[in-house]
Model the fold of this input.
Amino acid sequence: MNRFLDLADFPREQIKDLLGLAARLQQHPQPQALAGKVLGLLFLNPSLRTLASFQSAMMRLGGTAVVITPGQGTWQMETRSGAIMNGAAAEHVREAVPVLASYCDAMGIRMFAEGRNLAADLAETGFRMMADLCDKPLVNMESAMSHPCQALADWHTLDELRVPERGKFVLSWTNHPRALPLAVPSSTVHMAAMRGMEVVVLRPDGFALPEQIMEKARQAAKASGGAVHETTDRAEALSGAHVVYAKEWGSPQHYGDNEADARLREYLGDWCVKDSWFKTADPRCHFMHCLPVRRNVAVADEVLDGSRSVVVREAFNRMVVQMAVLYRLLRG
Done:
């Protein structure tokens, strides 16, 4: 494995093998496995879990991480092709990425969607340009449409909790003051479909995931024996659910139009996950969210602080699975 950019790049068996390695490293640490190795981390967007978990994963394997956050101790960076650089950015990624890669044995890049052109973001135009500049093993730490490390951690969490592979997995849209990217919902629906689950995307009108994302998930479900469908009917979606995974995202039909998106979500305050949502779910139903989360806007305190919430465990598992990814990238 030389790159970890999207779960869809790998067959299901290889992902399960990677999860098996993660479990072994969790139970039997190898603190010298990556001794002398250097991981370069380029964050073009903010982070808490991704930043800390990658640093911790590398150090627990005996390696070192170098973190670059443009504009904070380094030059501000330009990412646009053909840009006339007469503004704040003093350095272009076309030089910065190859230079950073030359100092390291592997790299991770975090570059969110631009949020203006849906077709360009679906095509991962920005991240692919960055990836082409890197000649070392590379990890996607979240791009426009993919967050593979979060998805892998979620899969590992489901396995730890012994959630049935054919169980019912509900990905539910939740409220937020503004439009958020599609990377996590895209990766989550694909992960659950790839695992073989009955996947239901629950969302209000106007927030249907793009057809490309849903078709990708349907193909994964076809290969694994799972199923995928969307609904606006909350009662139908939550009935018998084994997992409710809450996530906020913007309206694809108003992509890049913040005012129209805001008007659409203005009356959707009841899309805050509360205990009442779980009345008809499976008694052992778990609640998941990738974090960060807006309490009492997206999810109520009673759910986040309740016994069904596994959000902290999910976050811990980011480090666990990323140890396996780094091990495969740097040791094979």
